[in-house]
Amino acid sequence: MRKIIIIGCPGAGKSTFARELRNLTGLPLIYLDRLWHKADRTTVTRDEFDRALTQAMAADEWIIDGNYIRTLEMRLQNCDTVFFLDYPTELCLEGAASRIGTVREDLPWVEEVFDPEFRQWILDFPRDQLPRIYELLERYNENIDIITFHSRDEMADWLRNRKLLERKV
User: pLDDT tens-digit profile of 97-118?
Assistant: First the structure.
C-alpha cells in the first residue's frame, strides 16, 4: 500500500479515515477538496485542478481523499489500493450534519449550515454516483486491492487490527 485512494459518499468519514491511515502509514495525505476549493469558497479551474492532481499522483507514495467522479478513473489507474466507504445514505447525512461548525483540515473554511443543495447531493449519491463507482471498481478490481467497508464499525475494526499488527512488528 503506497498509493491509496479513499472514496465514498460525502459524510461517510473519508477524511477521518484518511487521517487515521496517514497516522498509521506515514504516507502524505492529499485532500481533493483542498485542491479544488479556495478559502473564499470559489474553485480553481478544471485545468488547475487536473494539474495539481497529476502532480500529486507523480509522487511515489500518497493517500488521496475524495470522490470527484470525473477524475476517479485516472486515480484508479495510478493507485494500488482503494478504500471504499459504502455506507447507508442516512449515516452519511448524519456524518455531514455532525461536522457543521467544525474546523477541518480537509476543507479551507468552516461550514456554518448544512447547505440544502449539498444535502440533496448526498441524497442523490446512490442514484447519481454509485453506479459509476461500482462500474469502475469492477473494471479495475484485478489490478488493485479494493477494501470496502459497509459500516463505521468495519472501518474501526480494520484500523484496530492494522494497529495491532504494527505493534507486533
Answer: 999 999 999 988 889 999 999 9
CB proximity list for 76: less than 8 A, separation 6 or greater: 5, 82, 136, 137, 139, 140, 144
Report the largest interatomic distance among the alpha carbons of the chain, rounded to a whole angstrom.
47
Query: pTM score > 0.85 for this model?
Result: yes
Residue 7 sits in which domain range? 3-168
**C-alpha to C-alpha distance for 53 and 46, rounded to whole angstroms:** 10
List all residues 6 or more positions away from 167 whose beta carbon is below 8 Å from its beta carbon: none
Q: Is 130 exposed, middle or buried (0-12, 13-18, 19+ CB in 10 A)?
A: middle
Q: Report how far residue 84's alpha carbon sits from residue 132's, in angstroms, rounded to the nearest whole number.
A: 13
Rounded to the nearest angstrom, the gap between the alpha carbon of residue 134 and the centroid of all alpha carbons in its chain is 15
Number of domains in the chain: 1
| Domain containing residue 85: CATH number | 3.40.50.300
